[in-house]
């Protein structure tokens, strides 16, 4: 009985985490398309061979879609959505690194120390994606079989 209650509590925490991450992504995606568009343009690495605005708009649309998927995906698809969200966070990480390397101010990150301190948080977003969707647990379960 106690184990079942603990599992239910863990499921509630994962659900809150998953929906919360979905809300964060949907908000960030909306900000890409509206009020923070210029700030996000500052994060597009100079070596990306696409128009900065196109990259910002495209990533905003992807963030809105991922945020929505995290919040509403049926249980059988949540692990896949978690892996896609984690891959997205890995894919945009070079933009964060570029902001540090090019000393670009955006989002209040106006010193190299602040820009550098931000970098490890991307790993937290990857972990949040995998944990809250059960993707990591599902992968570990498959490996054990």
UniProtKB/TrEMBL annotation:
The membrane spanning regions, by residue number, are: 12-34, 54-73, 80-101, 121-139
Q: What domain of life?
A: Bacteria
For this UniProt record, give its keywords in alphabetical order, as a comma-separated list.
Answer: Membrane, Transmembrane, Transmembrane helix
The reply on keyword Translocase is no
Protein name in UniProt: DoxX family membrane protein
Q: Which source organism does the UniProt entry give? A: Cellulomonas hominis
Q: What is the lineage of its organism?
A: Bacteria, Bacillati, Actinomycetota, Actinomycetes, Micrococcales
